[in-house]
Target: DNA polymerase IV
Amino acid sequence: MRTAPTILHLDMDAFYASVEQASKPSLRGKAVIVGGLGPRGVVATASYEARVFGVHSAMPMAQARRLAPNAAYLVPRFEVYRAISEQVMGLLRALSPLVEPLSLDEAFVDLEAEGAAWDAESARLTGTKLRSDIRAVTGLTGSVGLAASKMLAKIASEEAKPDGLLLIEPGTERALLGPKSVRILPGVGPATGDHLRRAGITTVEEIVEAGEDELVRLVGKAHGHGLYAMALAHDDRSVVAERDTKSVSVEDTYDVDIHDRVRVRTEVQRLADRCVRRLRGARLSGRTIVLKVRRYDFSTLTRSETLRGPTDDPAVVRETAARLLEAVDTTGGVRLLGVGVSGLADYTQEDLFAQAAGETHLDDEDTLEEPAREAAAPAERRWPAGHDVCHTEFGHGWVQGSGLGRVTVRFETPDSAPGRVRTFRTDDPALQPADPLPLIPAGPEQSEVTAVGRKASPGSQGTVAAKE
Ligand code: TTP
Ligand code: MG
Ligand code: MG
Model:
């Protein structure tokens, strides 16, 4: 294990909810809950103000509504979270080539890789500067943990939350861990926690006291050794840049060229299913579906389509691959076919997104995986809570709620004062869905993008109309 606290762990504070508060001035300092609003929806996250009521991630939305009836309930805006995540990851990559993202809002960084830090003092300075850079670039807060191992760095950022930094000096790890609950150790969930408690072990210290043999006896060989090592603060895992897998794909080469178009289609479906099985096996999902075709003359084509969000749904991958195939001429015969998914995302996180989006028929338009829907949509317009809209007269705003043919919009922008609420008919032609606005007023290099974005929504009067 290294001797300097140069492994950094960053985790953004109440990430989705903070983004929503930064976007919507009227929600700052308020209880905000983001997640699926349909009957079986779950909470993705809650602002710290909402956590006071006991609301937390993965809780059924119905329960959250009972605990915090007056909170603002919003459907996630993934494209915004993803864009901000990219900004944050960019700041991390400027510190070191060794950045290991764990989810949209979280990553490990090895600060020693390129000399960003070498001892406690330089590590602290780097962590402090990172937090202020994140704030300047995104307008949001993230918490930083610094330690000599991944496990401790992550525990440190958790302890530092919200909006803090904690550095664990090498040599003090065991003193720090000792009195804490066993639940602080990675992999110790409620079940293991209960099991250990029944054996009289509630703190990390008590794990050490019980000894390795006793621990193996209690939780089995597989976990016992690891748990004991963690209790001693032994963790040698290194920071691994990126994921090993950037895409998941399968392909088949055929002994005899396939000429029959129907057979080609069937093969593509089969490959799509196999690809999804592999994707799911790796607990991943992805946004870009790739079809590869090698023809009789060895000419090889790849065609791809990027969906609006990550998927691991076999039906979606199959349909997309079939659509891609329609654009490929296979008349001379095919000797190889492949289907792949790239633009991979963390399944465990994105899966909850998928639920949040998929289960909310009425409120949620941000379906992750139906590019074809856009064409068919206009029949009945839907207004997901929290999503951006633009009104020809009142400018930019967001949907506060909808139902019974009415939609309520609050007109405000990230840099306006809290705005006013107005109600419209859901089919009011003056009201249109809009692109999200940047959280931080555009700097010189961004201004062009923003200008285009604003122009694209013709009636937008920006902040002027949103002010009371
Ligand atoms: P977390 O970092 O676990 O939580 P958080 O950023 O909301 O709050 P904290 O200050 O405690 O870090 O997750 C990051 C985002 O991932 C979160 O804002 C929403 C999403 N998410 C889910 O969709 N479902 C979940 O169960 C969890 C834990 C997170
Ligand atoms: Mg977080
Ligand atoms: Mg996180």
